[in-house]
Amino acid sequence: MRYDLAVFFLVIFFVLEADSTSNKEYNWLRFNYLETEKSSTKAVNRKKAELGKMLFFDKNLSADSTVSCETCHQPNLYFTDGVSLSTLGVSGKKLKRHTPSVINMAFHNGFFWDGGAKNLESLILGPLTDEDEMGMNLKVLEANLNEDLNYQKKFNLAFGIDTIRIAHLQKALAAYMGTLQMSGTKFDQFLIGESELTSTEIKGFNLFVDKKCISCHQLPMMSDFSYHNTGLDSVYSEAFERLAMGRFRITRDSSLIGAFKTPSLKFVSNTAPYMHDGRFENLMGVLNHYSGDLYDNPYLDRKLDPQGINMSTEEKKAIIEFLQIL
Q: Where is heme c 1 bound in this sequence (predicted)?
């Protein structure tokens, strides 16, 4: 069957990845951020991650002590907030972009929908200081942390410091976010020969490959972590710091106007709604877009046919069955 050939190439990929490391027990399905460092630093990293978790759930990091990182990245919702555009920030205003999951971000390349942050540490400053999200003044936050005896102790244990700086907070939060890793889905198990797929899931897998969804949603994280204009819009406003212009806002490369980061499809059935502005309530809405509802604008990614991807309703249902096991 055709899926046997597809799986063959996927297995070859994993074998090559495994051979590239000296750790014989390495397996990306069980990869853990805390275990990537040399043994002499594991304990320190664990302390940083524990401190980062404490900070992640602390509402005192916001200007009015009502919003924490967890407010929008809720564990029970796969670290999303379940709405198109959140109004849970300190201003109560609707945010300009959809809240993405932070699961498996240790494997990502580029952060925010437009890649405006290069690493987890720089990512943290965005929501922390944004006037509509947490609205915090960094000097005030730094002073507050240094006045908190509990935090003084925790930061000293993690970093060996007496004076807390924002950079230490960034490193601690990044360490915790690096541990937010999940795997072991049915498809993960299938790839290592520990699970079988149903005929519909196999059909969906084949369609996912045949329709070239996999050209952008590549294994193992189901994303190329690149930026594409997928025909969502035909007009790109310059309002709100050119947020609608996507990657162009960062690079000033006109070919990337309206291009946004390819989201990972891991656990995608649990992280609705979808797209950078959460415009689609369900996966069928996403597939309907790609099958013909896209705008043929001058910046449309060359990987996409302006006429859309030819998919029947039954084919879409099969693809969704496959997406549900990622």
A: 69, 72-73
